[in-house]
Amino acid sequence: MPAVRETVDTVRKIDVDQYKYGFVTDIASEKAPKGLSEDVVRFISEKKGEPDWMLEWRLDAYRRWLTQHEPTWARVSYPKIDFQDIYYYSAPTHTPGPKSLDEVDPELLRTYEKLGIPLREREILAGVEGSRVAVDAVFDSVSVVTTFKDELKKAGVLFMSMSEAIREHPDLVRRYLGSVVPVTDNFYATLNSAVFSDGSFVYVPEGVRCPMELSTYFRINERKTGQFERTLIIADKGAYVSYLEGCTAPMRDENQLHAAVVELVALEDAEIKYSTVQNWYPGDKSGKGGVYNFVTKRGLCAGARSKISWTQVETGSAITWKYPSCILRGDDSVGEFYSIAVSNGYQQVDSGTKMRHLGKNTKSRIISKGIAAGHSNNTYRGLVTANRRATGARNYTNCDSLLIGDLCGAHTIPYIESYNRTAVFEHEATTSKIAEDQLFYCKSRGLSDEEAVALIVNGFVRDVLQQLPMEFAVEAQKLISVSLEGSVG
Amino acid sequence: MSAEPRVLRTDAETALIAAYEGARDTLPGNAEVQGLRAEAFARFRASGLPHRRVEEWKYTDLRALLREVPPLAARLSEKDAAAALALAPDRLGGLERYRLILVDGHFMPGLSDLGPLLLEGVEVEGAGLLFASQSAGKVVMTLPDIARTDAAVSLNTALAGDGVAIVVRPGVQLSRPLEILHVSTGVEASAFTRDALIVGAGAALRVVEVHVGRDGVIGHANSLAYVDVGADARLDWSKLQAAGDRASHLGSLVATVGAGARFNHLTVTAGASLSRSQSFVTIAGEGAEINLNGATMIGGDQHADVTLVLNHAKPGSRSRVLFKNVADGSADGVFQGKIIVAQEAQKTDGKMMAKQLLLSDDAAFVSKPELEIYADDVQCGHGSTSGRIDEAMLFYFLSRGIPRPDAERLLLQAFLADAVEAIGDEEVGAALEGVIEDWLSRRAPAEKAQ
User: Fold this and answer.
1) I need a surface site. Which of A48, A182, A433, B436 has the fewest CB within 10 A?
2) Interface predicted TM-score of the whole assembly (ipTM), two decimals
3) Cα-flanking dihedrals φ and ψ of residue A460, to 5°?
């Protein structure tokens, strides 16, 4: 019971309107002029001291973006975004690539402290015994500090900001950037390609098992600043890496746009595990404010027997538009997607996955748990497809939705395309509410309404929570309960 | 995006525009109905035929697939119609039933069993009269929101020239099934029909809607059935689509089901090179019970789409959907099923299942079951599977000396018959299972051994 006790305590402490992480850090920042033009793209590229090929890549993306239209097919509605009313670049000043924590703006460190990020190594070691987490902290748009770099270096793992990677490992970046999510993939991915500010770069060499979980904390901070991260993770033959991404954002009245791109490449026998906990500001009780989260995440199982596993816990953002996908090109490759999406208040979630079976005997598994409360709408949208050469493809999909209250909506939209008779696809989905008898059972044993709901919901999402690395599982469990606060009684 | 100006029209679009402009002044209906027609056609003119970027038509891209729309069919004389009817195969075999006959989209009262129907309390007239009537015309042309703006429905509203209008008086229990037979004769022509069936409170009847046509003839049919099932009534409606092998068929069912009523629907799809059978069912009263079933058997280069939208608008209803689909040759099959549960529709119990078997390397099937739920006290679910015939089951048959083709046929027969049996009508079920057997026996030799 202590876990439940703890979640309930947290719920009591935090109110929807008093978003725990909704504070603003006041430090000087350097911005590009508002709006988007070729000049802004050049400004960003110049600021980051990028080589010409990178600038050309960005400009190409920008020109293509001008010809594209915003997608409108998702089950979300929001006022039209004025893309000329956004700052596309902002960097914390005093960051000439700090070598140690002492060089980092103390204000920044205090922010992280408030967020509870184990930035200092001793904090990490003090956290969970035996587990170590390397943090590449992203503050607004520029990577500020990277820890554990030395130890990773010993293993041969490259873990750095994208800007650094462009400078230090241009060959790798040129080879893989845009190889999974093409420049013109979709409206937001193209926008990201033009203006991405920073992000993480990971390369795990052949045969190396990354000695620790890699982690990035994202944080949107500067007023009216879109954040456009670009993450690229490459696991070479036989390599293994587990990557954790967690996000918080301060409270804002105006909507903030976030359009990240994450690309994963797994070569022969490699495995990438990518876990996300997303709890950006969802807007206040009346649905005002909140982050727009339009993300393109895709993994390519390029080699035989490779594996990519996505795990996500989505509790934040006013609007989520996100479909972490796997392209199963290598024979016998495996794709997995485990998701918990919790929506409350006026949140709108349209999320799911895509599993594209291209190679022979490829397997995929989708477990999605959606929980809708308040006035929210929570949609699972998933594609499973096997092309003509994908003999022996196998998919199992399970989507369950839980409704709490009669003003919310839960929707399931799977697309199941079978172009090969040897492909075996199974899909099942259910939607229901928390059974009265379950609630009654819990309450008859002395739990309050909220405790009972927290307990049942945590049981409902257990299959997915178990997939998370331990450091995240605890945080995720708390988050889910906090997100559902105020939805019962 | 759909907002782009479109200049190029496909041949089919041009033909549809010509058909409407040529027939506009002679299409039946009062001023209000003509207004609705103009409005519906304006929708088509603005957006053209639906294509893959129109979500509901994503997998049946009419702009690419619908190549030709021949001119509207002329009305045959009763004598010629009778001759054409005599040549059309009777797909229901010996089933005893009343018949309503439409030839090339025109209702043939002289060939239909109007007298006996009237004696049992069922009134039938041509839809032309319905379109002209003051209140009913508007109702059958306006349609509920979930159906009205659909592309095929809009075209039907604009161009429907005839059909049958059937009114079943309250409490009537019709003794025999009622067949609504749409025959297309040998001419290359298009038929746009709208049938209407009003089932009075507490009445019960069985309807079999049959579409047949000659192979080798390019034809286009766009039919719509408007169905209103009164409180506590019972309607079992089976549709057999066995159009000719070069025909295109767009069929819609728009049904409203009242409180305590029971509506069973079965779609058997076997014919046409391009077809879409769509059902828009609204549960408008408490405690209704709905069963939507279907069996699709396609081969060659057929493209068949079955799309359902089931809207639970009132509390306490129960729905069951079961579809069994097989695709052979290089056929493309599509199943789309959407269950909507409105906020008011608490205590809804809805289940949907679609199972697909692919019989050849080039066949494909796409399945998109959807749940759209706004009420919390519900039990809803859907499932979808696709794969091939189970090798273990085949092996069982083979090990008992049953040749592979026979084993496959038996397994497929059992697989498809599930959906037919679910309507719980032995007479009609037996007739439709005959259609399945027929298809299986004509099917090309079985897949090669592994």
Assistant:
1) A182
2) 0.87
3) -60, -35
